[in-house]
Amino acid sequence: MKGIKYSWVLNIIDRPPRASRAMGVYLTLLYLRWIYRYNYYRKPEDIVNDASQWFYNIYPARDKDREEAFQAGRDFVKRLSQKKEALKYNNRKHLLDKIEAKLYNKFEEAFKRYLKLNLIPPNMRCDVVKLLKHLKQSPLFRGEMTPAGTLYIYLERSNKQKRIEPGLTSDLIKILQESGLAVIGRDDEFFFLIIPAPSLSDEVLCMIASGSAAASGPPQPVTETLPSPLKCVDDNIIDTKEILEKIAASALKHLGFRVKVNTQMPDRSGGYINVDVWGEKGIFKVYVSCKNWDNDIGRPIIDQELGRTANLMDMPHLKVIVAKSLTDDAEKAALANGFLVIKLRTKATKGNAEKICGYIYKELGNTLASIVPPGSLR
User: Fold this and answer.
1) Which is it for strands 258-266 and 143-145: parallel, antiparallel or unpaired?
2) Residue 165 and residue 61 in one domain
3) Is residue 221 part of a domain?
4) Which site among 125, 141, 214, 350 is 20 to 30 Å from 203 CA-CA?
């Protein structure tokens, strides 16, 4: 590994817009370091497309900037795959670690620009800081750390052997993901959480504790109050199993989406898939699954939803599950596979329809404000 030069990486990221291109290379590097740890390379386009959910969820950017990030990721994989030492896992891991450490300042500068720390609830800031400090200073229960300080934490091995890092609750994992402090994903064996080294820096920890937002943070959060004089539901609405679908559809309408309720969408086999709520605004598409159940949503339901969305001919940009509650493994699976999970903690009824609609409106609005390029919603 002696004599490795990094000018080829600098040639990729040191072109305007530098922050987006550096972010694209960094996220691709982190993705390759874990997902493809035992694999040979496929086509660069396939790997970057696999990582596209990370690009999309972790930071807000204009259409042009996002495409620059994608292109930088593609260029990085293509150039990396040309190096013999990158074809075997152990050599590739060391090479990626050296690149992260050598160019850390550039990656850190870009990463901090796209953090969304204002999405951390004020009452959870101390818990987030405490957890990150614990993970930074204490030996990992199971996981590994790169020389630059990025943490890879294994969350689940199999149904027969579950071990979770102490202090990592579902709520904290969701906060870390939504704020851009961490990325959650999965492969055939593990659920895993990646906490990039900049998230553990003293500067970022101070920003979290003080309530400061990153320099290029997203717009102000949407409030839970619906736009006056609009109402969420019709006065004639009745308590049926479809009431939650009507409420979710109304929230999307108030956000400017054209919606379909209980519709059928074409699938890849030539048939149709039943969809609870489908929303479109400009080129942006939203899939919403509504579960107005008494019991927790279990893992088998999430697996069904994954199959349904994967088979849709028209792939949604945002996948949403709205339910009273989910089991821990179901929620982890949903988050790991790119779903926005909206937990209501109660069943929807005519009596609480307005309140639930306001809550869904707020959650969807905040998510859209943080991840959607402005041009996509015209």
Assistant:
1) unpaired
2) no
3) no
4) 141
Mean pLDDT by 10 residues, the chain (378 residues): 69 88 89 66 57 54 69 85 73 89 92 84 87 78 81 63 58 84 70 87 85 47 46 61 88 91 90 93 88 93 91 87 93 86 91 89 81 52
Are residue 307 and residue 281 in the same domain, yes or no? yes
pTM across the whole model: 0.56
The token duo for 161 is 């052997």
Which domain CATH number covers 366?
A: 3.40.1350.10
> Do 76 and 136 reside in the same domain of the chain?
no
> Distances in Å between the alpha carbon of 329 and those of 53, 167, 184?
20, 16, 13
For 133, list phi and psi in degrees, rounded to 5: -65, -40
* pLDDT attached to residue 161: 40
- Residue 56: inside a domain: yes
Give the SS3 label for residue 127: helix
Distance CA 39, CA 220 (A): 42
Same domain, 353 and 264: yes
Instruction: Tell me if 220 is assigned to some domain.
Output: no
Instruction: Show the DSSP H helices in the chain as ranges.
Output: 7-13, 18-35, 44-50, 52-58, 63-81, 89-102, 104-113, 125-137, 170-178, 202-210, 243-254, 299-311, 328-336, 353-371
